[in-house]
Amino acid sequence: MVLYYKSMSDIYKKLLILRTPGIGPVKFNSLINRFGDIDSVVQSLGADVAFCDSVKREMDKAAQLGIHYLSDDDVLYPANLRKIKNHPPVISVRGNLDSLSRPMVSIVGTRHATVAGMNFVADLAQALANSGTVVVSGMAIGTDTAAHYGALRAQGNMQTIAVLAGGVDYVWPLENESLYYQIMERGALISEMPVGFVPVATNFVQRNRWVAGLADKLILGEADLKSGSMTTARFAIDYGRDLWAIPSHPADLRAVGPNSLIRSGDAKLCMGIDDFVNLENKQTKNQKNFENLKRENNLLDALGTNPVSESVLADVVKKSVSEIKQDLVVLELQGLIQKVDGGYVRLN
Q1: CATH number of 280-346
Q2: What percent of the chain has pLDDT over 90?
């Protein structure tokens, strides 16, 4: 029996454990800690032939559909997901595996989004995808759908990932059947559930955990306080993710979620794509502004009521005369200094 289990593939052994009723990521890890290794856990479960055959049939079906299994020790397994405590030991992926190794931003929101809200999310998702970022969502109707379709408007492949509550081959909701196949062709669909599995309510909460955990950032669109999207936002906070929220009209209940997170300081205000793709340029610009301000302050500190020449000022701030001329013009336009005979004086 030991030799038989040793001959199994690592994925098969892990699936034998995970497909056992009552075993999820938490119990899986508990069993590994208790018995020490995968082989010992499999042997302890004593799976019968019928159960082993059911796992084999699932793997055969996955192979027929082009579905891949990724173990958490696989290099292609999403790095951010691996860092989460009790993450899925095995996930199934349908589509482009390379999507999982690119920078990701998750976008979630209500199923009952306004047209304006969905248009904003779609435009934002398209801009993110055009910048080389993969948009992650849960393929629900409303905000999720807008995020996926927006990303798919970008050129090329690997723009979007859908995290599913059911099996990776199970299309839900049915209204998104066309979207499902577009994501399969140009992005990726992932799930921790068995192939063919029909989701129940609790699976959607678990799905939300992985939507929050996959990306470095999560953007929240319209959402009421008790929505699943707010649960996803709370997961993002727990995981230390960078949380952004799109504001909306305070009279609309769908604005309560994002607006409350902005007000509490848990989420940053999202105004559009410039908050993300131009962030590095903004930081560079801010640094330059800071350096300019520092030079200007040094010049102010060197001035008083007695005129000081440009050459002396340049020597004080350790710059050339040509380098400080622009700063002097700025200070003069601000009414802080004045040019007089003999140089410059400070006005206040």
Answers
A1: 1.10.10.10
A2: 73
